Every structure is written in structure tokens, then in C-alpha cells.
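[User]
If only I could read C-alpha cells as easily as an amino acid sequence. I have put the entry right below:
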Amino acid sequence: MRKSLLLVVSLVVLLAAGCVRGQKTWITDLDTAAAEAGNNGNSILLAFTGSDWNEESKLFAESLFTEKFFALGSKEFVLCNVDVVKNEELLDEETREKNYQLAQSYAVQQIPSFFLLTPDKDIYGMFSVEAATTTIDSFYEQAASYTEARDKLITLKKKIAESEGLEKAGFMDQFMEAVSPQQRDNYRSFIEEITTLDADSTAGLKPKYLLQLQYMKAVDLYQAGNLGEAGEGFFELARGGLLEPAKKQEALYMGTYMYAMSETIPAEQLIAWLEEAIAADPENPGVTQIVNTIEQIKQNDTGQ
């Protein structure tokens, strides 16, 4: 019995020591990092760098990404680096392409950039800092400033899973308002369910999300070459009586735009649809753009 107890204690000590050690270097695959975050409950710190061409990235590697950086950071985060390189010898072609696509999907505007993700890979923070003025402590203080946003997303996900009906739709609405705009397409199923749960617009949520859903459908139809069907979807929504005037105008404009790209509709019809859009909300500032579009169509039609 004594030997068994000692063995258990030894295993606990070893496991604890492993947890304390944490990461000593980057995980370089986001899916792997997400799996690790799912296991330990930590958030993900996702760093986009350009190690072979970007001077700031080189400075960070020299001055910030040290043993202390990993020891301190891995207490709260799974540390993941997506390196967007130019030198083809540094990474294999598949990894290079995957990293470029990730940078594009996260709409990275600056290298290096740092994203904070929940274990479900929901973005709850993003920041860029300069190596010359950043310490390890100040870096993690910046990351910690987004904790409230992280907790909100995680809590809402939990409430969505535990609720039903209009209450669930309400939590989904709050989540869609809180999630990063570039990730909204990831939650198309939420948007579809909101419109179903609030089918009679009792909570006023269905009209709010119908236009967003139509944009998503239009992208699919556009990619399939069905521009007319995409346009008709916007028109049906606009004329369905559920949208407020500004949204109705937007839907009519987008329907016209889709048909215009199909190059199958005469100029007179396009202009008539745009005039219908103006009438939907004549005081909207967007009317100026619609008027300019009408003038452009007339000029193109007369060959001027």
C-alpha cells in the first residue's frame, strides 16, 4: 500500500512539473494549437511573422521570443506562430501556402500581428506592438487587457448550448455582435437558426439577419455562376415586407448589381430597379451612390 501511494505521488509530481515547464518554443500549426487549447482550456496566442523578410519580426525573435517569453506565456496561452515567409527553402510548399491562406483569412494588415483566440478559435483580441518599445511583461499585459472579451464569447457559447427558443436566439444574437466580423461567415448556422427560432419576428431578430444570410447565399451563387439567382434572392427579400427602409434599399441595390454583372439585363431595367431602390428610402445618404450608378449606366448605354 505504501509503495502504491508513493507511486501515485510521484506521478502527480511529474505531471505537475510538466505543466509548469509549459512550452519552450512555438507550435507552428494552428489546428495543433487549437487541439492543445481544447485539452488544457488555455487561449491561443497566434503570432503572424515574416522571419526572413520583416525587420520587426527579426527583432522580436532576438529580443522578445525568449525562454522567459514562453515560460510566462504558456501559463495562460497556447503559443502558435504562423510564419509567412518568402524564402521557399525555409518551409515546404504546402506549409507556405497554408500560412499565406491563414494570414489572408485573418485579414492580417501588418506583420508582425498578434491574435488572441478562444480554444474554439474565436478571435477576441488583436494587437500589434513595436519590438523596440515592448517588454515581455508589457506584451502580456496587453494580451491580458482582452480577458473580458474572451470571457464574454465563452460564456455566450455556453448559454447558447444550454438554452432554447427565443432565449437561444437572443444569446446567438449577442454572440454574433461580439464575434469578430471576419469570422461571421463561420457562424452561418447561427444566423440560419436565429431566423428559424424567430420565424414570426417576435424578437425582431429575423429581419436583422435575413440580409446577412442573403449575402452569404449570394457569394455561393456568384461562385457557381448563378448571378441572376443571386439577384433574385435580394429582390425577393427586399419586397417581402420584413426589411426596414434602409435595408430594403440595400437589398434592391445589391439585386440590381448582381443582375448587372450577369450582363443579361437591359440598361432601362437596371435603372428602373435602382429608382425603386431610391424610392425605398429617399433620404438615405446612400442615394447619392445610387444616383451616380444610374448616371454611369446611362453613359455606358449611350457609349459616351
Observations:
- Strands lie at 43-49, 77-83, 113-117, 123-127.
- The CA atoms of residues 169 and 193 lie 7 Å apart.
- The chain has two domains: 21-145, 152-302.
- The two ends are 96 Å apart (CA to CA).
